[in-house]
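Hey L., structure's done. Input below.
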Amino acid sequence: MDVDDLPDGLVVADADARVVEFNAAAERLTGLDRRSVLGQDIRTALPLQDSRGRRWWQCTDPWTGLAIRTGHRERLLILPPARELLVTARYIRPGRSEPVERVVLQLRDTESRRRAEHDHAGLISTVAHELRSPLTSVKGFTATLLRRWEKFTDEQKRLMLSTVEADADRVTRLIAELLDISRIEAGRLEVRRQVIDLPDLVEGQVRRLVASGHDESRFDLCLERDGLPELWADPDRLEQVLANLLENALRHGEGKVRVTVTAADLNGVGPGVLLRVEDAGEGIPEEQFGMVFTKFWRGGRRGGTGLGLYVVRGLVEAHGGRATVGRSVLGGAEFTIQLPSAAPARP
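Output:
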């Protein structure tokens, strides 16, 4: 493979610190001409500095510094006068504690870091906004009850405490979503598989929604039981998926919410289960289908964090499954979850 085909900058220096490789991406990122750099001392050709203005090559010193170093993780460095680069270094040694044979630098621009910082800022802003409302409610009701307990009837106290409980549940769900997002993005989401009965999970979620005040007649359950393959999955994670999809369907329309569970032969995977959640709302424009499971997508509606469907996709993919969206015959959106049975191998 030609190093000029690499998307990131590549700079290689030999045992004498002379530049022996400088690809096209490195030219673009540094603004330096390859012909003027090749053969030069890398410390002179790339006089990198940290954010405090310290000379990076003096701090890291691959050639005469500690012989046990193998490189450095990605860090933000500055190529004077003001060009910011994300630099990863690897020191190639023929053996442990032996002199460096080559120093390999990977260079990237800072756009990816800016995007990550923008996402983090957006996440903090969203979370702060979503936490403020329930916490303000909890604070107001508890303060009122503590000051004027004797002046309220038992029914009034029960109503206020029920509101506090609902707001506390809302905060708990938001924190759980944030933890899941952190695990998904770090690749550390754990799935504890066991044999589950998906139709039972669906019915349990519907019972909880009815108990919380939703009209039972809105739910249309089409749950296949005979012929379903043995499904190995994490029941807690699938309950999160169901809760998000059902609450989303209820929020976006006043009509029926249909939930379907059927057996399926998943292409390239084998036997599995299809879960569909449909609503009779206004639906989602087809041109936005590709954005539905991205972070902060709200479909132009106010309210909510825009994180629920992002978490749904992460939880489903952690099971080796797939989440898709389309238009329902009911008129609204149709969310389809494909779950492979993922039965453990038999000894």
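Residues 30 and 101 are 24 Å apart (CA to CA). The chain has three domains: 3-109, 113-186, 194-340.

-- N.
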